[in-house]
Amino acid sequence: MATLNMVQAIRATLEREMERDERIILLGQDIGRNGGMFRATDGLQERFGEARVVDMPLAEGVIVGSAVGLACSGLRPIPELQFLGFGSQAFHQIEGQVARMRFRSQSRYPMPIVIRAPFGGNVRTPELHSDAHEAKYANSPGLKVVTPASAHDAKGLLTEAIRGEDPVLFCEPLRGYRLIKDAVPDEDYTLPFGRLRIARPGSDVTLVAWSAAVVVAEQAAELAEQEGISCQVVDLRTLVPLDVEGLAKAVSATGRAVVVHEAPLTAGFGAEVVATIVEHAFSALSAPVLRVTAPDAPYPFSSLERAYLPSAERSLGAIRRVMGAA
Amino acid sequence: MATLNMVQAIRATLEREMERDERIILLGQDIGRNGGMFRATDGLQERFGEARVVDMPLAEGVIVGSAVGLACSGLRPIPELQFLGFGSQAFHQIEGQVARMRFRSQSRYPMPIVIRAPFGGNVRTPELHSDAHEAKYANSPGLKVVTPASAHDAKGLLTEAIRGEDPVLFCEPLRGYRLIKDAVPDEDYTLPFGRLRIARPGSDVTLVAWSAAVVVAEQAAELAEQEGISCQVVDLRTLVPLDVEGLAKAVSATGRAVVVHEAPLTAGFGAEVVATIVEHAFSALSAPVLRVTAPDAPYPFSSLERAYLPSAERSLGAIRRVMGAA
Amino acid sequence: MSILTTSTGGPTPVRILAPDGSVPDGYRPPLPDSELLAAYRLMLMSRRVDERAFNLQRQGRLGVFSPVNGQEASVIGSAFALDPTRDWVVPQYRELPAMLRQGYTLERFLLYCMGDPEGNRMPDGVNLLPIQISLAAQIPHAVGLAWGLRHQGRDSVVCVYFGDGASSEGDFHEACNLAGVRRAPVIFFLQNNRWAISTPVSKQTGADSFATRATGYGFPGELVDGNDFFAVHEATLLAVARARAGEGPTLIESRTYRMGPHNTADDPTRYVDPEELEAYRALDPVARVRSFLLEAELLSEELEHRMRAEIEEELAAAVAAAEARGAGRPEQIFDHVYADPPPRLLDQRDAITGEAQ
Amino acid sequence: MSILTTSTGGPTPVRILAPDGSVPDGYRPPLPDSELLAAYRLMLMSRRVDERAFNLQRQGRLGVFSPVNGQEASVIGSAFALDPTRDWVVPQYRELPAMLRQGYTLERFLLYCMGDPEGNRMPDGVNLLPIQISLAAQIPHAVGLAWGLRHQGRDSVVCVYFGDGASSEGDFHEACNLAGVRRAPVIFFLQNNRWAISTPVSKQTGADSFATRATGYGFPGELVDGNDFFAVHEATLLAVARARAGEGPTLIESRTYRMGPHNTADDPTRYVDPEELEAYRALDPVARVRSFLLEAELLSEELEHRMRAEIEEELAAAVAAAEARGAGRPEQIFDHVYADPPPRLLDQRDAITGEAQ
Ligand SMILES: Cc1ncc(C[n+]2csc(CCOP(=O)(O)OP(=O)(O)O)c2C)c(N)n1
Ligand SMILES: Cc1ncc(C[n+]2csc(CCOP(=O)(O)OP(=O)(O)O)c2C)c(N)n1
Ligand SMILES: [Mg+2]
Ligand SMILES: [Mg+2]
Question: Cβ < 6 Å from ligand 2: which residues?
Answer without folding.
Answer: A 29, 58, 82, 86, 89; D 94, 133-135, 163-166, 193, 195-197, 258, 262
